[in-house]
Design brief:
- The complex is a heterodimer.
- By secondary structure, chain A is of the alpha/beta class.
- Chain A contains five helices and five strands, in the order βαβαβαβαβα.
- In chain A, strands 2-1-3-4-5 form a five-stranded parallel β-sheet, with helices on both faces.
- By secondary structure, chain B is mostly helical.
- The longest helix of chain B is centred in the N-terminal third of the chain and has 115 residues.
- The radius of gyration of chain B is 43 Å and the shape is elongated.
- Classes of the chains: A alpha/beta, B mainly alpha.
- Chains A and B meet through α1, α4, β5 and α5 of A and α2, α3 and α5 of B.
Chain lengths: ~120, ~220
């Protein structure tokens, strides 16, 4: 299963990709912001993990655009972000995010959220 | 007064007195002129005082604006920035300590593995368990580096406050001397893209904040994937 990992921090991308590999997902593609993520997204991507705060295009902006595309309407989007006030979480949900992880996160939390969304990703 | 020296002294004194008298006459004329001038100035005094009062009020108004600008810059922005930078220091130290602790534990595990290898009857199951623990420790070290992303956002926020302060201080300088404002370009620090950081980013209370996100996603129906 191919994951698209979107974060402007190379450190965070590496941590997320390393976490994915630990739980058995070795196929990943990276992007440094929402615009690059849109360019790299195609129907082979089955799961998106995105940060919120990024230059050029944020994670919520990217998710909204993704949801307007035929090939991105149903792909699971997991947001991993430092933002954690109630309004932000609701905004992410309205943008089309399926679940939400607050930074700094533990590998267990990442695994739980991915596991919960896997059936949709496999569909 | 037969003494010629006495006569000379007398004439010289008389001449001196005449000179003094002449000087006094000139001074008297001058005093009258001064007196006339003062009379005219006194008539204008209310106008002069009013004008001076207006100038003093304008200066006070500028000083108040300056004080307000300084207050809003220093009291709120600087305090927040100071707190953020303190948090960066503390998060960096916490991460460093966590990584060092994990290094110590990993080192002990390697020693134990060496012990198993040196044994005549190596406990393979124990070695496998230790290797798994070692992998966990290494993974924990990598996870501890998440602080870098959050502290970089906090520093980006601090940087944006500095840029704002530079602009405000330039405005204050402009109040006193507009020529100062054109001496050099504003915002010598590159402005950070506001989209790229969260001013409230923090490393604290991660579990509590995750619980809040989970409760919202549980109570409010998340979009179906």
């Amino acid at each position: 299963m191919k994951f698209l990992v979107v974060d402007d921090s190379a450190t965070m991308r590496r941590i997320v990709i390393n976490s994915l590999q630990r739980i058995g997902f070795n196929e990943t593609v990276e992007a440094g912001d929402g615009q690059e993520a849109l360019e790299k997204f195609d129907s082979s991507v089955k799961f998106v993990i995105t940060d919120w705060n990024m230059p050029n295009m944020t994670g919520t902006e990217f998710t909204k655009v993704l949801r307007s595309r035929d090939d991105g309407r149903h792909v699971p989007v997991l947001m991993v972000t430092a933002r954690s006030v109630k309004e932000d979480i609701l905004t992410a949900m309205e943008a089309g995010v399926n679940n939400y992880i607050v930074k700094p996160f533990t590998p267990q939390v990442l695994k739980e959220k991915i596991d919960a969304l896997l059936p949709a990703a496999a569909a | 007064m037969n003494d010629p020296r006495a006569q000379t002294a007398y004439y010289e004194s008389e001449a001196a007195l005449r000179l003094v008298d002449k000087e006094l006459d000139q001074l008297r004329d001058g005093a009258e002129m001064v007196s006339r001038f003062v009379t005219v100035s006194l008539a204008d005094l209310p106008l002069i005082l009013e004008r001076a009062n207006g100038q003093i009020r304008a200066v006070l108004s500028h000083l108040r604006e300056t004080r307000q600008a300084l207050q809003s810059t220093t009291f709120e922005k600087l305090q927040t920035t100071h707190d953020k930078i303190k948090e960066v220091t503390s998060a960096t130290e916490d991460a460093a300590i966590n990584i060092m602790d994990a290094c110590d534990r990993a080192s002990q595990i390697v020693d134990e593995l060496d012990g198993i290898d040196a044994s005549e009857t190596p406990d393979r199951a124990k070695a496998s368990e230790l290797r798994s623990t070692l992998r966990d420790e290494l993974f924990m070290m990598m996870g501890a580096l998440q602080f870098q992303d959050i502290t970089s956002q906090q520093l980006a926020h601090a940087s944006s406050v500095l840029v704002e302060m530079e602009t405000r201080l330039a405005d204050i300088a402009n109040l006193f001397d507009s020529s100062l404002a054109t001496d050099r370009p504003l915002a010598t620090l590159a402005a950070v893209d506001e989209k790229a950081y969260d001013p409230n980013a923090t490393i604290r209370n991660a579990e509590e904040r995750q619980n809040l996100a989970d409760s919202i996603f549980t109570t409010v129906k998340a979009p179906a994937a």
